[in-house]
Amino acid sequence: MNPLYSVAEIRAIEQRAAEALPAGTLMQRAGQATANAALDMLPFSTNGARVLVLAGPGNNGGDALEAAAHLTYSGAQVDVLHFPPAGEQSAERAAAQRRAESSDAIFNDIGGSALAGTEWNLIIDGLFGIGLARPVSGALRTLVDTVNTLGCPVLALDVPSGLDADTGAVVGPDGVAIRATHTITFIGDKPGLHTCDGRDHAGQVTVAALDLEPRQFPSVRLHLNEARFFARKLKTRRQNSHKGSYGNVAVVGGARGMAGAPILAARSALHAGAGRVFAVFADDAPSYDSGQPELMCRAAAGFDLDSSVLVLGPGLGTAPQSVELLKRAVASASALVADADALNLLAADAALQAAVAQRGAGCIITPHPLEAARLLGCAITAVQADRVAAARTLAARLRATVVLKGSGTVIAAPDGDAVINTTGNPALATAGTGDVLAGLCGSLLAQGWPQWEAALAAVWLHGMAADVLVTDGVGPIGLTAGELVPAIRAAINRLVQQHGR
Ligand SMILES: NC(=O)C1=CN([C@@H]2O[C@H](COP(=O)(O)OP(=O)(O)OC[C@H]3O[C@@H](n4cnc5c(N)ncnc54)[C@H](O)[C@@H]3O)[C@@H](O)[C@H]2O)[C@@H](O)CC1
Ligand SMILES: Nc1ncnc2c1ncn2[C@@H]1O[C@H](COP(=O)(O)OP(=O)(O)O)[C@@H](O)[C@H]1O
Ligand SMILES: [K+]
């Protein structure tokens, strides 16, 4: 189920587990798991492979020292750059240090130029884990900067040093963190490895549970997204069905000069399977979309907002008639996806926010971090400093399903459940991809999906489409939002083939 644990939860699990085990057992297991992971990353013949172990002052350093000793037995040449604690150290760390010192590991006060001048096969980052208490500074900051310039594989222990394990933010206003190619994280997975700066620093993440049993883990309300959370909603089409069986979507936006945004969202809704799709324009409507004549283009004035699932916001603008449209949409009985300018207008109107919270038909909102900041009345840095908390706060306040976009999109429900998405990549950092996502959410709602599963599936499919396109060389540079649309269609059909019933 890919649960994600906070630092406080990990500490509690660790403490209870440690009480039932001989002293030092967990650190020894962490060291052994690290050595195994390191061997997988080294050349087949480990003899003479150059490994640099960075061992910090806490128990993260203890894990690294345990690993250093193990790795010498494989024939690797292990150098240890050791930062002993200024004061007392834990008994298990002291034992790990003794083991490393009596192994063939070379404790070496290796300087910056020697560090940068050596061809390391692997660097193991055991500077700081979940005990990081302040920004990495001074000589350690220089060390992190140097490691980040080297092109060699880097295995981070528990968390890349400098990264906040709860939030994925690099600690400090101008902080640094190790950019690892791999992270082996202990006991349970951590949210900070998967959102905000986490994905750039953690690389490939594996979890070493240190032989703890499932009963030792509490149930949590934060998970990584996976198809099994929404697979039961994937339905094969009945033979005896028709366009009315797959619902109507109306994308409402497209103020003068911004007609492209609703068209992208509407095309996305159509290709994701909605039976009928309207593109509804705040100002004059074009007579039709020549690239997608299946869409029905309408002016908003007089359009029946109760007839379709509404995707409100793409290119909506903020003129007075857009505010009126938003009010009509919120007051309608239709399922609603609010995006882009709909969110900016909502942020400026407390009464409308209250109306959204009271909607019987619910709401999915899809803010990017700036839109979320406006809705929360805070700075964008505050949103990014704790994306999961920001999404949960918004979800509770608006009683909506919140999709907080960005690297490691967070989906949150009003009851506190939250999920971090794993698909997607920076190819999506281009105009219009958010419109495509909003249209996809609306399409799934129109096909009868509940809000929560629709949001989870839409974010997963949108990211998966981008991942497949990048694998095929269509991006990350130069992917266009329109190219996502057929890739999403392929991804959803593939999922239905796998899971549909
Ligand atoms: N205790 C155990 O038996 C186990 C510990 N584990 C490891 O232990 C780690 C947690 O250990 P700790 O609680 O000792 O924490 P860390 O090793 O992450 O760091 C804490 C130490 O670093 C210092 N420190 C924090 N931020 C600093 C900064 N910016 N600059 C300089 N010094 C700084 C603290 O004063 C303290 O000495 C986990 O991340 C994990 O790697 C796990 O392997 C599980 C088993
Ligand atoms: N670096 C990235 N990694 C993963 N996903 C990204 C990245 N950058 C953008 N995205 C995704 O692309 C979409 C962008 O949406 P948005 O910012 O609303 O753009 P627009 O308004 O131009 O449509 C979101 O789904 C977001 O999560
Ligand atoms: K670390």
UniProtKB/TrEMBL annotation:
Its cofactor is Mg(2+); K(+). Gene3D superfamilies: 3.40.1190.20, YjeF N-terminal domain. Binds 1 potassium ion per subunit. It comes from the Bacteria. Keywords: ATP-binding, Isomerase, Lyase, Metal-binding, Multifunctional enzyme, NAD, NADP, Nucleotide-binding, Potassium. K(+) binds at residues 60, 125, 161. Its EC number is 4.2.1.136, 5.1.99.6. Pfam families: Carb_kinase (PF01256), YjeF_N (PF03853). Residues 10-218 form the YjeF N-terminal domain. AMP binds at residues 405-409, 434. (6S)-NADPHX binds at residues 59-63, 129-135, 158, 261, 315, 368, 435. GO terms for molecular function: ADP-dependent NAD(P)H-hydrate dehydratase activity; ATP binding; metal ion binding; NAD(P)HX epimerase activity. GO terms for biological process: metabolite repair; nicotinamide nucleotide metabolic process. Residues 226-495 form the YjeF C-terminal domain. It catalyses: (6S)-NADHX + ADP = AMP + phosphate + NADH + H(+); (6R)-NADHX = (6S)-NADHX; (6S)-NADPHX + ADP = AMP + phosphate + NADPH + H(+); (6R)-NADPHX = (6S)-NADPHX. Homotetramer. Bifunctional enzyme that catalyzes the epimerization of the S- and R-forms of NAD(P)HX and the dehydration of the S-form of NAD(P)HX at the expense of ADP, which is converted to AMP. This allows the repair of both epimers of NAD(P)HX, a damaged form of NAD(P)H that is a result of enzymatic or heat-dependent hydration. Catalyzes the epimerization of the S- and R-forms of NAD(P)HX, a damaged form of NAD(P)H that is a result of enzymatic or heat-dependent hydration. This is a prerequisite for the S-specific NAD(P)H-hydrate dehydratase to allow the repair of both epimers of NAD(P)HX. In the C-terminal section; belongs to the NnrD/CARKD family. Belongs to the NnrE/AIBP family. This is Bifunctional NAD(P)H-hydrate repair enzyme. It comes from Rugamonas brunnea. The lineage of its organism: Bacteria, Pseudomonadati, Pseudomonadota, Betaproteobacteria, Burkholderiales. The gene is nnrE.
